[in-house]
Design a protein that fits this description.
The chain has a single domain, classed as Rossmann fold (3-Layer(aba) Sandwich). It starts with 13 loop residues before the first strand and ends with a strand. The chain is built from five helices and four strands. Helices cover about 30% and strands about 30% of the residues.
Length: about 110
């Protein structure tokens, strides 16, 4: 019998958030707050691109945070998209099985 997966967050469930761009951290912080309100536990946050000048990492300092690409100088949206496009092969190789092997763990993809 196939195990039915719930689309909601269950109390005690470990959650990994995966986002395309970590900028100011405001959206991710709001999502973390909602997960915690629902009783979920944060296992970590991962982003493909981190815009370091916007200091999103500071808002998320209480959580494990990983980014694949760190852009240090101020960038335009076009530059972010170009960087994303150049690195898409690396992004496709990311293996989230370590985060999602447990039955009480989910990954939330925000892109």
């Amino acid at each position: 019998m196939e195990k039915k997966r719930s689309k909601s967050i269950l109390p005690g469930e470990k959650i990994v958030i995966v986002d395309d761009v970590i900028a100011t951290g405001g959206t991710l912080k709001a999502i973390v707050d909602l997960i915690k309100k629902l009783g979920g536990k944060m296992a970590g946050i991962s982003g493909f691109i981190e815009l370091k000048d916007l200091k999103g990492r500071e808002k998320l300092r209480d959580y494990k945070l990983h980014s694949l690409i760190k852009l240090i100088k101020p960038v335009t949206a076009k530059e972010v998209l170009e960087t994303f496009a150049k690195n898409i092969k690396k992004i496709k190789k990311i293996d989230l099985r370590n985060f999602t092997q447990s039955s009480n763990r989910k990954a939330l993809f925000l892109f």
